[in-house]
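User: Predict the complex.
Assistant: Input components as received:
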Amino acid sequence: EVQLVESGGGLVQPGGSQRLSCAASGFTFTNHWMSWFRQAPGRGLEWVAIIKEDGSEKYYVDSVKGRFTISRDNAKNSLYLQMNSLRVEDTAVYYCARDGGNSWGQGTLVTVSS
Amino acid sequence: DVVMTQSPLSLPVTLGQPASISCRSSQSLVFSDGDTYLIWFQQRPGQSPRRLIYKISNRDSGVPDRFSGSGSGTDFTLKISRVEAEDVGVYYCMQSTHWPHTFGQGTRLEIK
């Protein structure tokens, strides 16, 4: 069974940093692109970033380019999202997902507020 | 960016009746490989999203066959043949043909 478990959310001040992690199990991690999505409170879904199986390609939504970095550690079956220069509008539940969304984690809430 | 426009945004449906959601893209979603990367997700209240349909019309494992997807190019539809109580939630279309991947606004399905 595919399992994706996010962690690392919490309260952070504007301008601060946060690192999210996603532990994957139940499938061959190295065979899949991995994605981050987010959902602001009461709002719709937004695709954030995606990384190729070997980490050689990464793509981002414009609003996070230069501030967020997606990465992965295939030896640890883990996906990461390093978020810097956080803004109030980055407040959301962040989900990791396999490929373009065929399996999702439960999400982790990041709140950016002073 | 490709703009995805869903309608209606709110969909009250009687149990056992059909439902239909439209999703239109601002440009063609046909990829260079000939496939069209149009996906439908369901998000039940308080839950993570779940993929229902990929590449326009392919149902994911475990998805009831009352869900079907159709369309081509820029115009797509998700149909539920007979709505059940467990179908309550928000439905999103998403395109993954072009970067960045983009979602529709979501359609909230409720029981009348």
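Chain B has a mean pLDDT of 98.
Let me know if you want any component modeled separately.
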